[in-house]
Each structure stands twice: as C-alpha cells, then as structure tokens.
C-alpha cells in the first residue's frame, strides 16, 4: 500500500515541502548571526599578457563572431578597443570584453595610428 504524501512546514515563512510517509516535522532555518566579511576591492581589469596593441584577435561571440580584429587599447572600464579595420572586413571600432576573444601570435604595426582621448567609454554609450 502506498503511503500518502504530507505537507511539512520548513520554517516560519510559508514554504512547504513534500515527504513520503513521515509525520510533520518543524525545523527553523539557520541564519548566520554575524556579519559576512567582504574583503575585496574593486580593481581595474588586468590585461592578458598575450594581448598588446597591434595584436590580431579572433572574436568568439556576437555579431562579428569568427572575425579577426586588431587590438588598439584597453579602456578604463576594462573592455578592449578593437577595429577590423572596417574597410577591410566590416568590423567597426568597438568595445569587446577580453573573455570573448582569442589572441593570436600575429602582430600589426600601429606606428602612425593615433587614437587620442576621443574613444573612451562615454563615446560608446547610447544617447538618450
């Protein structure tokens, strides 16, 4: 003969779980009585050693997945500033998180390229 399932109260809050054949048991949730320590600081993202200005990267996700792009610089937010260049493969200047790229051993000489302070995180934000 199959035993009936009973509702068992778990805590003071109205949360219920089902048990097979056991009578109702009340148990109080254990909560920590001390404050949790948060020993961390917000620090800028470290750039991978394989990624240097002029390195050719392969994009792993997004609209330009599989495309090769050239790394220009790291922005204050930690994102990478990359370009196709647009004229060659259609990838515009854009920000990409370094976890979504693979660095290749190919380097491009960026000797005469000057970016200035025009391209920062504010430049890429949507206008309201």
Describe the model.
- With 128 residues, the protein is mainly beta.
- The chain is 6% helix and 28% strand.
- The protein has helices spanning 86-89, 121-124, and strands at residues 5-9, 16-20, 55-59, 68-74, 80-83, 94-96, 101-107.
- The strands form two sheets. The protein has a five-stranded antiparallel sheet with strand order 6-5-4-3-7, with no helix packed on it. Strands 1-2 form a two-stranded antiparallel sheet.
- The longest helix has 4 residues, at 86-89.
- The model has no long low-confidence stretch (mean pLDDT 82).
Write down the overall geometry.
Answer: elongated
Overall mean pLDDT: 82
- Return residue spans where pLDDT drops below 50 for at least 5 consecutive residues: none
Question: What gyration radius follows from the Cα positions, in whole Å?
Answer: 27 Å
Beta strand count: 7
Can you list the strand order of the major beta sheet? 6-5-4-3-7
Largest sheet: 5 strands, antiparallel
Element pattern in H and E: EEEEEHEEH
Keywords:
128 residues; mainly beta; 28% strand; elongated
In short:
The chain has 128 residues and is mainly beta. The protein contains two helices and seven strands; from the N terminus they run βββββαββα. The longest helix is centred in the C-terminal third of the chain and has 4 residues, at 86-89.
Write the layout of secondary structure elements.
Elements: E1 5-9, E2 16-20, E3 55-59, E4 68-74, E5 80-83, H1 86-89, E6 94-96, E7 101-107, H2 121-124
Antiparallel strand pairs: 1-2, 3-4, 3-7, 4-5, 5-6
């Amino acid at each position: 003969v199959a035993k009936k399932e009973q509702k068992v109260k778990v805590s003071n809050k109205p949360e219920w779980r089902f048990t097979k054949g056991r009578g109702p048991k009340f148990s109080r949730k254990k909560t920590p009585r001390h404050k949790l320590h948060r020993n961390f600081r917000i620090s800028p993202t470290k750039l991978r050693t394989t990624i240097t200005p002029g390195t050719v990267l392969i994009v792993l996700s997004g609209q330009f997945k599989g495309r090769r792009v050239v790394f220009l610089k790291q922005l204050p937010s930690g994102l990478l500033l990359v370009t196709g260049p647009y004229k060659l493969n259609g990838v515009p200047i854009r920000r990409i998180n370094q976890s979504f790229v693979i660095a290749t051993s190919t380097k491009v000489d960026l000797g005469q390229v000057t970016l200035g302070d025009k391209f920062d995180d504010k430049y890429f934000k949507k206008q309201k």
